[in-house]
Amino acid sequence: MPDALIWPAAAVICIIILGTLALFLLRPALLRLVDRTKKVGKDGLTFERPQEGGKPETPLLSFDELMKLPITASVLDREKSIKTNLQTFNLKDDIEKIEVLTRALANSRVEIEFNNISYVIFGSQINLLIRLAGTTQGISLAQAETIFKQAQDNFPALHETRTLNEWLNYLIANKLVIRSDEKIDITQYGTDFLKHLVDARLAYERYG
Questions:
Q1: Residue-number span of the structural domain to which 161 is assigned
Q2: Which of 5, 29, 170, 200 is most buried, with most CB under 10 Å away?
Q3: What are the tens digits of pLDDT across the range 35-85?
Q4: For residue 43, which of 157, 206, 208 has the smallest C-alpha distance?
């Protein structure tokens, strides 16, 4: 295989391997997403929007526990093929393999996180992120409250009993924004999230 094609091919295969591992690690979160499914219609799946509270902790699994998780014969066959292909790559030692696999896993995990956030984030919260991304030092809490008040006016059934702190809490808990004194600013994670919406063609207008 030409050298120019080795690393792209390695990256694709590593992402496949660790994408499967990520599904195992995030299985509880994915099951909770299925549990929140309200209906399936011509416009796709509709989910409930549980933004209150922080994230529940996922129990840590050992190597043996991970390897005992239910798996299909097709996945085992693909796993064998990937392991065979990995042996053909120009990686010096196990340290390089771990570095490549860690990078691929980190990329897969962030993409899954961003996709999960995109399912439940309110349109008004994205408007706040966009507003913050256009500033150098963020905006005041009073300015953020103006955006929230507009959301209350436009979606009273959703936000009528919600407070500003509750509206902001989802963004803060997911590390999309940071609140300091009376100011709100976007984080690098929040900036990357907006970029992901564009790159994944998920930058559509959202409810709320």
A1: 122-199
A2: 170
A3: 444 444 444 444 455 665 555 566 788 888 888 888 899 988 988 887 787
A4: 206
For residues 108 and 37, membership in a common domain is answered with yes
156 within 8 A of 171, measured Cβ to Cβ:
no
The gap between the terminal CA atoms of the chain, to the nearest Å, is: 50
Q: Give 200 or 88, the one with higher predicted confidence.
A: 200
Residues 13 and 113 in one domain: yes
Q: Which of 95, 81, 159 has its CA nearest to residue 127? A: 159
Tokens standing for 187? 């984080």
94, 135: one domain: no
Q: How many residues does the chain have?
A: 208
Amino acid at 101: L
In a domain, 207, yes or no: no
CA-to-CA distance for 147 and 121, rounded, in angstroms? Answer: 15
Any domain includes 204: no
